[in-house]
Amino acid sequence: MARLFDRNMFIMLLSIMIGVIIITFFIADIMARTEVTKDLETKYTEEIADIESKNINFTNSFIQSLGLFDISREYRAQGGYNFDLALIWYSTALSLTNATELEVYKGRIIGSCKDAILNYTYSYANFLEAKVRFERTISYTTYEQYLNILDLYINLTKSGSRLMGHRINSSKYLMYLAENLTIIDGSLGYQGNVSNLTDMFNESLLAYQMELEFYEQLEDEIEYEYSIIGFSEIREEG
Question: pTM, whole model, 2 decimals?
Answer without folding.
Answer: 0.76
